[in-house]
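Homework-ish question, so no full write-ups if that breaks the rules, but can someone show me the predicted structure for this set?
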Amino acid sequence: MAVKNNIRISLGPITYYWSEQQISDFYHDIAKTNVDIVYLGEVICAKRRTQDYNGWLEIGRFLQKQGKQVILSTLTLIEAQSDIKTIKKICRNDEFLVEANDIATVQILSDLNLPFVTGPSVNIYNSQTLKILQKKGLKRWVMPVELSRQTLLDFQQKIDFDIETEIFTFGKMPLAYSARCYTARAYNLSKDDCQYKCIDDSDGKLLKTKEQQKFLNINGIQMQSAATSNLLNEIKNEKDANIDVVRINPQSKFTPDIIEVFNQTLKENNPINKDKLKKYILGESCNGYWFNSPGMNLL
Amino acid sequence: MELVTPAGNLPSLKAAVDNGADSVYIGFKDDTNARHFAGLNFDDNKSHLAISYARDRGVKVFAAINTYPQPSNFNRWQNSVDMAADIGVDAIILADMGVMEYACKKHPDLHLHLSVQGSATTAEAINFYHKNFAIKRVVIPRVLSIKQVGLLIKKSLVPIETFGFGSLCVMVEGRCLLSSYVTGQSPNTYGACSPASFVKWVEKKDMLETRLNDVLIDKYKDDETAGYPTICKGRFKVSENTYYAMEEPTSLNTLDILPELFKIGVSAIKIEGRQRSPAYVAQVTKVWRQAIDSVKNNYSDFIIKDNWQEQLQKVSEGTSTTLGAYSRPWQ
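A: Not a homework solution, just the prediction itself:
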């Protein structure tokens, strides 16, 4: 027996800007997969509005009926008062748990005495911090992507309280956020006049070095890794890290297929179908952070 | 409005104090602060000298302990907090809430400031740290427009410190992993961005390449001035264009909007640059002392003296300066 036999697979929030139709089609496909948990909502840019609050709730209800645990995700970089208003509305929904991606949202949720989950951009780097947030109502945390397996093991040594651990296992990694929109900048536009250009890049916009190395992935105000982090092999063989949930980040193509490979590997205990998985990875793979190495490395 | 200036070593601290700083911030000689550079920062002995030099002249000293400890090294951050309390700093600047909890329990009288690395951009986030750890001040990330800073000040329960001058992070501080993606070391985990040990300057025919752990950050022709390969200041290719995809190698200078910053109630202006020379600290502190005094005296008639900008320009990173996110079009 390698991983926990009750390990669950989650699908992170869509980080890109997709049309209403694309979002709807996507989750109809997801409903048919063996994913256990689905995070829904806009986490990058408040200007992206092809799907509104009620639309997300409807998708959530649909997925819940198909047996998925649904969690509403919230904005990561909060700048305007209107962002806070939206987040408060999401926090006050009475159907689904909320994923906080900023301490402001943690504060709002703990004021409401509501349980919550934190995403990878909430800085939980040690068990003291984890415990403080657990006392505030944190039920599950996603470890920051730059932390290693060893750090996770060190955490587990110190965790003497009830908490679930989720690991970002597959997808282009969130690396940075800015006030500036880099997609708009790529088109020589300002953020206020962005013309929603990011809707043209269903999986972000590739940034290469001057010697053509595929380096980063521009996604509005966010920078992602150009390489896809893939820890499936590592997680499959992991015996000690006590991982409860593995997270896959949505991409415009192959997401249901990726979920199925994860399902076969982690739940049905079959060998990883590496040839298949390779086809589903957009760009190159990396896993360096897990081994306490540069994140871009593949070890 | 207080002038908060950087000191990477004792000569810089003296330069700051002698040129009119209200307070000086320092770090200790390890990865517990966000300028963990070789040859920089204060050991126990130098910290004591720093405190007495500053205190004799009525200047406050803050210690930045603003990186994120992990389970295996948490005690190092505890030691830094203890050392700061022991030498008698006026406040410690923290980012990690585990460290804040420790400081509150062990040294209840020690003042805590929330570091820019704590990424608090809203009154709600500030409120969290205020309620739980009684923070006395917040340094806010360089992501808000001046209008947003004004609204935040109105709602915030604690005074706000903003960056006024120096190198410019274009990403939200405390949430940028670009450096560790390339080198394995980030400001959060190691206290340095694009660490020098990974930098290579490679001379090629007619070209100078700057690399970070072998990733090409930029390439310069003979007539171009090469900059340090910080990832966000490199030139990259997006679609068919090669350009500064994130930011030009400029630095922040808010002298132009100082009266507005004063008017909206910014409590303190922070100067970046603990890694810079004592000459930089002296020059920048001197100009900003005059500017802040002039604004306090009469902000509606504030005029920037020509020689201020000239003197600041001489010590700026790159050849130009920007208002950064304070100015909406920059975003």
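Now go work out the reasoning yourself. Hint: Chain B touches chain A through 71 residues (CB under 8 Å).
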